[in-house]
Sequence to fold (126 residues):
Amino acid sequence: MSRTVSLACASAILLALAAPAAVAQQQFHQERTVRTSDIDINTRRGADEALERIEEASEQLCGDRPGPMPLPERAGVENCTYETMEIAVADSGNRMLHQRYYGYEPQVIIEDDGSADPYLEPKGSR
Fold:
């Protein structure tokens, strides 16, 4: 009898582990379309709005829901959302969207020929 209980427990554990994998595999093949035709994603405001829409669609795809969730389920949803957003931002090919997602702004680089800085002149040319 103890052997039957052990097999039943092992089967339950295997089913519990297989269920999230099956759900993740099923979610992988789903897709959502995020419309951005009504906003200019080449501006900060437009890119931020697009990112909010992408995040919302990602959360829907990944099974986010209101209310408490077991920690493994919450972690799975967060990882899925992160990966889905990464893919969407990369696939967009939009520079501003990419910059706003990763949190950096383009820097201005001033090129100089070096003539104004005496430390850049070769020795003996002064």
Notes: The two ends are 97 Å apart (CA to CA). Residues 32-104 form one domain.
